[in-house]
Write a structure and sequence with these properties.
Chain lengths: ~160, ~160, ~160, ~160, ~160, ~160
């Protein structure tokens, strides 16, 4: 029932077999999670992407990635075997340029529910990152999806805020 | 028609709108791609996972992630907006321990087709990484999906092998 | 937060990027929406379809379309990028003959939730219309999905009833 | 509105057309259902599977089937045309050996909702059974999914417990 | 085996039950289909959408609809019960303004395969139209999806070109 | 590479981990598989279903199950973790009454491909059986899905015909 303070893998049962966590007795609260992923494109590709995308920030690479991230977050429970199927109250993906060579994706997911939405936020960020990769891959095979991590989480047993949050 | 040698974004058309790449005139060849993702769990969690998973390497965290990765690779074209729907001849996910604190996921995808399977390999590795995250997240919020990248690619216009391959 | 009385596109944020609408603060109410689609088959095809389908109304063209419409409505949030994932309390699709040459599909969707189900009703009607098209397309390429629209909507901020409802 | 005591097919409307059941007026209660499926593998295949899977019960055939069953249960409403889309509070799949020649799969599904989860439990058991079949089919074409049935159901209008439960 | 010149419903078998069409004996050819859908937004909404979208044509309403249309086309066989699962060589969605009050969506799908891609083109156009509806629906309930139809089809038994093509 | 004559589990690799089977070197041939499932409804429910469904065999229970079975067969590779994603040339589901108390579902799947379609046929039969269960479950909790098995298989390394085929 605990979220993270006992040293055991909650997704394994006593027999060591994979298992969902029963959330039937939990109370529905407003849960919010934010995740971040950094994609290193290299300065040349970043310039090309920026040329199309900035300063208007309406360009197709970013927008395609934003939409893919939101749609991916909605499908988290289909992709991650032991995730609970959840609705979402909201999901926002933003992408910013990190000069000289990278972009930063941030995905926020929220729900009023019995379990957290970390995996939704992380999946949304990851699918957005993969989509940027896909749209730029004709230009280089050295694109790197670097540092996908949770930034903050509220509404569960214990809040979490990463130092960079 | 070129895969990666002209400095343009193939997923944008002349009007700057997102677009698929027409592969109708391409020849079907045997395509293989390998991608790698590194997940930093920390030494304590790694020990727990190893305890359950090694030396037999049959344990549930790794196996759950392997299956999720394979199933994720099969759904790449649903997740990445401009990817072609493809069959797969094969998909293999392997996970190895990188002491003291990480695991390395490698995903190989292959197909006899008109377009490459880099995105399938990268998506498989990413979904496996997210699944490991999910199964260990009750133990820490500081798990990091550190680096996801293409390792090799053969069968298209030009082969690619990353220095680490 | 308003549903439709301010002249702005709620699915774009201040930066002009696509965004979901946060429904976290909304109250769950019983929402019902009805949509209608008209498919012009031509009198000859309609006679064939009727021959199989009427007067029993159990025939396979209509039933296939009814089931496809219901199943399509359930998948609305996978198809429409910024739709919230929602359960449904009910979904009904009915098809009636509009002599001399058309059929009328009506799809009703309802949910007790924080956001409306217009898109579910419209998606259900559209998928049913496409299914009728598919089942009759061997007979003509001139089938027309003539008009798909919302007929009524209740349970949100303001009710709506189209003149034809 | 009744669940099972009147002799009519609730999934057909007055016109004999397929229809969902409106659950809008129902109260959300804690619903639990258990289903069981028996797969006859033959003694030789069972020995092979056991060799890999027992006594640790961590082996890949069983675990793959467990995960497939849980993931299948989550997708029930996509597969069964008139099922309501539901979240799940929990889903557990267990597999035990029934000497000399079979395995028994049990799938438990639970939700706090307006409608039961029998179909989720039955779908989870069936997909797990199909997965065992798939993993063993290279060894024999005579594998039999012998009997899939509901074992118990609580939380709806009337509880049910099969004699074997 | 004929595509459209005999007056019978190919998706019903001799017993009147729904059925797929066997394409096993057909030859794979390059198939292209184009479909069109018109969405009547009204002049005021069109101005708002244009303001964001034109003259750059990179704006988010159109781009979101383009991506949704392409992704929808890829999922046609999941939505339309008797459609064959197909890959796609290409899928292009374009949206143009039809003054004073409407937008025109055109979806082209192509494949080298044994069966046509009319349904993919029509589904792509329909999902794009529904997405425009969704993004503008906060402004009006009188948006109309009008005249979804096939424009051309080549590569099958007989080519088709609508008068407007 | 062999399909079924060596006593090993092809879906486990040398390390005992789950794995797909590489079909890259296989030749595409016409593959056909048939599977059968028996659903014991009891004589009373069968009479009700027959009343609606026979003698026309166009009734909604059977048709709903037929469509669900075909749609389920198309999604086999999403449900069964290690199945290859495949197109299908054809899929037929038929349902017949087995007096006094049961129905027999038969699902045929075919493809021109590198691997067999047994799992598609078995999945189609199983989803059709579950759908019949769903549509009749309001009448009894004692419905039984009995004996799902492969009936025949041709086009691979070795043909198979069950004694009952």
């Amino acid at each position: 029932m605990s979220d993270y303070d006992s040293p055991k893998l909650t997704h394994l049962n006593a027999a060591g077999q994979p298992t969902m966590v029963d959330v039937g007795e939990k109370t529905a609260t407003r849960r919010v999670a934010r995740a971040r992923s950094r994609v290193v494109l290299g300065a040349e590709i970043l310039a090309l992407v920026q040329h199309g995308d900035l300063p208007t920030r309406k360009g197709p690479v970013f927008q395609t990635a934003i939409l893919a991230g939101i749609m991916g977050a909605k499908r988290t429970s289909e992709l991650i075997p032991l995730c609970h199927p959840l609705g979402l109250d909201d999901c926002q993906v933003t992408i910013t340029v990190a000069l000289p060579d990278a972009v930063i994706i941030e995905c926020m997911a929220s729900v009023t529910g019995k379990t957290g939405v970390e995996m939704e936020a992380l999946t949304g960020a990851s699918v957005a990152a993969l989509t940027i990769y896909d749209m730029c891959k004709a230009l280089s095979h050295d694109i790197l999806i670097q540092e996908t991590r949770l930034i903050s989480k509220t509404g569960g047993k214990r809040d979490f805020h990463h130092a960079d949050a």
